[in-house]
């Protein structure tokens, strides 16, 4: 797990190595164990290394395969790298390291851009062909690893985080009104390729981009489940689906134990993370390190779920670590979490993940996390409403149950110059749901949530917060083969038992029933949800700052109304409206965006 950066010139000039060095240094937290810079011709690459596989210097990056004429940087983990290494050896390739990075280079030499079809894992890579000057960028199927792009005059820069691109300089930091519309509609999600800044874009998930020396490029989207019932699953009953899901999850968890360092688990006590612990115990893991975080109660709201995580830890004999965060620590930790954000994120558990990652990173360098199960297996409370819609009516129903605000409501939130003249967020949903595949209304909703909303909200959240402490988070519920299986699973099996029915059936085979059949929990951070003392002070400070007034994104009367009653204004989905507005401004100020 690492941070990558680079610059490609298209105008005959040499790359700005100093800018690449600044970007690379800004990524130091993602890779505290090593630093490397490489430059040749029109390309410069930078890398920060977190040692997980091949702890020797043979695994250092940027890595060059002189025989093949390739140099590359890589972030992530190819879990099947050992199998691929054996296959590539049989094809005549020789290896000088035991790293998965070298497997990526050899795989590109063997299969070209189709190498990604052979990888099981989470990854971003940039590979330079010395002879042609061509640069190839690739991102994993579910977008678990990020890659940000900043075009400029005669050049393209890229990095693992948006703040790293800002450190390089020369970025258009004006706000993108379409992205802002999405941010305020979708609980702070901004879909690839956009970000809230006009000058920064994201390489979409499951995409290989080939960039020619003249700056032209071609994209290949190499993976997308169909979300239809498949012939090979015809006739399968609920029990067979349960067994198939459990077996595929076993494989996903087993794959993510590949490392040359210990691997722990973020244990919330919910079904998803508890399943991971149970399956690792089945694999023979002993003294597995598990980690839970909770917060002081606030406004009558319970701030921890330790009763459940303790139950799982005791049942499977884990080496359990518990972190109880006092409310005053939330406000002091807020700015650090915002600084770690590549994009503004409003979910309350951002601060929780940042604090938990600080604790965990002192014990282990790799953890497994239960992120993604709710989107993949239909665990959220709004899915039954979506499933009741006719296929043609699904986009409108989705907006009703999922959007924070309507386009009409945004007219009272944003200043006129920041509001697009049409409902661009609803249009995106309609276009996505109109794509081929997705047999039912629920299939269309799960496809959108898994491949768009999940990528640019919870997945990005976990990556940013963990990597800010040099901690690698692996997400077995986003194993691409498990996602394919879940996409083919009949909707009624996923919706059963209040959501995630097929996964709950799998859970009962290995977990205490009180963990499986408990009410669904959410990661509570009461001090933010209820705008308590110091957090509210920070919000007022940000919104009254000269930068906020000069920026003029929100209508003054709207902000004044929120500040007059900080805890009274909620979005359709129940989020604190003031927090959503303030977080954007705090993020912009934290990252020096005027």
Automatic annotation (TrEMBL):
One of its GO terms (cellular component) is cytosol. ATP binds at residues 266, 293, 369-370. One of its GO terms (biological process) is asparagine biosynthetic process. The active site is at residue 2. PROSITE patterns: GATASE_TYPE_2. Its EC number is 6.3.5.4. The keyword Transferase applies. The keyword Transferase applies. It catalyses: L-aspartate + L-glutamine + ATP + H2O = L-asparagine + L-glutamate + AMP + diphosphate + H(+). Pathway: Amino-acid biosynthesis; L-asparagine biosynthesis; L-asparagine from L-aspartate (L-Gln route): step 1/1. Keywords: Amino-acid biosynthesis, Asparagine biosynthesis, ATP-binding, Glutamine amidotransferase, Nucleotide-binding, Transferase. L-glutamine binds at residue 100. PANTHER family: ASPARAGINE SYNTHETASE (PTHR43284:SF1), ASPARAGINE SYNTHETASE (GLUTAMINE-HYDROLYZING) (PTHR43284). This is asparagine synthase (glutamine-hydrolyzing). It comes from Streptomyces solincola. The lineage of its organism: Bacteria, Bacillati, Actinomycetota, Actinomycetes, Kitasatosporales.
